[in-house]
Structures are given as C-alpha cells and as structure tokens.
Amino acid sequence: MTAITLIQGDITQQSVDAIVNAANSSLLGGGGVDGAIHRRGGPAILAECRDLRASRYGRGLPTGQAVATTAGNLDARWVIHTVGPRFTREENRSELLASCYRESLRIADELGARTVAFPAVSAGIYGWPMEDAARIAVETVRESVRETESAIEEVRFVLFDEQAYEAFARHVR
C-alpha cells in the first residue's frame, strides 16, 4: 500500500527517487517550483529538457502530460515534469489537473521509483484555489495507485507554506 505523507518545506531538499516539477510547457525553466528545481538541479536538467524540445516536444509539453529527465544535483534520481492547467472560472479544467498526477505516477512507476515528491501543481502562479487543488491531488493519487497496483511506496506532498499544508491535511485525513 502506498503511504501519502505531507511535509511543509522545499521540494528541492527532498531525498526521494523522483521529484515532480510543476513545469511550464516550454520545459526550459520558469518561476516558482520550476525555477527552483532548475536552479538547484543544475544544467543537466535543462540540457535534457532542451533535447526533449528538439525531439518529441517541439511545441512544448502539453498540459496534463508528464516526462522525466535526470535530477542533476538534486537528491533524487529523476525529475518528472508535468504541466498543470491554469485555473479559470469559465472552463472546468479539473480533469487536466488530475491527469498531471496520474501521468506523473505512471512515469514514476515505469522508471521504478518507490518514492515520489509532488508540489501543489497549478496552485501557485497558475491560480488554482488551494483547497480544490489539494482535493484533486489527494483523490487522484489515491485512486491512481489503487487502480494501477503501483509499486510506489510513498507519495510525499511537499507544501511550501502552512496554508497549503493545512489544505492538503484536510484531504489526507
């Protein structure tokens, strides 16, 4: 059975098999979690992201999908990049957000990862309300590991601040 744990802190400091990056579609770094992972992980991550852009993802990684690279200088084996949807009240994009978690877990399983650290995908500059982002994340992870008989032993949500931690805690209980 997969354990779901919560930590308030910096995702780039986690010692896990795979760290999930809330990337932008360019895969070339950005702000927030994406920028922090690229800065701390070093140039090896960016080099592999550029290779992905030059080959399979010339137009960028589509929203809701995921792809893995080296973790560079991070204390992990891989970084799994996923592009979350931007929140809008005009269109329900919940399925795209859920897909980020499902696809990241699928990639992690394919790689043989046993421990995976997730940020709150789309809940930063993409504007997803934290409570709803937490609900979707926790429900999707629980459902996904159960349905796929995942070999992942721990899914760790690494939340930047107390508000995010509390929102996720309400859904993990």
UniProtKB/TrEMBL annotation:
Domain Macro: 1-173
Pfam assignment, any one: Macro
CDD domains for this protein: Macro_OAADPr_deacetylase (cd02908)
Domain of life from the UniProt record: Bacteria
Family annotation (PANTHER family): GANGLIOSIDE INDUCED DIFFERENTIATION ASSOCIATED PROTEIN 2-RELATED, MACRO DOMAIN-CONTAINING PROTEIN
NCBIfam families noted in UniProt: PRK00431.1-6
Name listed for the protein in its UniProt record: O-acetyl-ADP-ribose deacetylase
Species of provenance: Streptomyces acidicola
Source species taxonomy: Bacteria, Bacillati, Actinomycetota, Actinomycetes, Kitasatosporales
